[in-house]
């Protein structure tokens, strides 16, 4: 595989695509869609995700969290496939592209989007950068939940509708929880290596059993989210179809509680698929009920 494709980490990209899909579907269903803004929002979200992955590749190598003994997919900087200088340069470039997307959206939606964009980019940078990076302090899940959940869904809706509502904010909880589930599996797999490198994720702080329960909680919370949204709207029953991913997740949950090591790589990939399917079903259900 091309080392840059490897560094992009395609299996993590559903976390960026899913909230934009749901925010756009809700805007379309409400009759306020603005597809040019949706496209720019998707571009910006993907840029932030990819740039964060590049920065993570670089800083985890520099801090010793990525070694030749890691159980996850090969990291391009650690493996010598891409130089550290090229990796951090690429991260800066892609963060700048995200900033340009933000500027474009600010002209349409105002200063609130500027604040969201700046905070999102800074959080992506300091996820693994700096003397006290978020991921190394056990704050990774909080970052992922906020920025790949309510912020991304609500922001996508807002740049199109120029307003928000509680149904949209609540809908963001689903993608936030499933994105956290992806991170929980990642941290469970890397627990031993992270502990040696001083990367104090929640899995390192509280152990394997906690990480497995965290994964289960995130799955359950996500499949309950459509029902919470429908309590607000009272007329979008079809979004409950998104909760069917709970049946798809049964095998993954069992493996998270019983498996370890490289077997969790498959679960990480499966959880990304769950997130994408969940978003498709939620989006389709919303549009269907809005016709």
Task: Tell me what you see in this structure.
The protein is mainly α and 291 residues long. The chain has 14 helices and no strands. Helix 3 runs antiparallel to helix 7. It is globular.
Write a short abstract of this structure.
The chain has 291 residues and is mainly alpha-helical.
Highest CATH level, the class: Mainly Alpha
Structural class: mainly alpha
User: In whole angstroms, how far apart are the ends?
Assistant: 44 Å
Please mark out the parts with pLDDT under 50 across 5 or more consecutive residues, or reply none.
none
User: Strand-and-helix sequence, N→C?
Assistant: HHHHHHHHHHHHHH
Taking all residues together, what is the mean pLDDT?
Answer: 92
Total strand count, please? 0
Helix content: over 70%
Roughly what fraction of the amino acids lie in strands?
A: under 5%
The name CATH uses for the topology is: Farnesyl Diphosphate Synthase
Count of helical stretches: 14
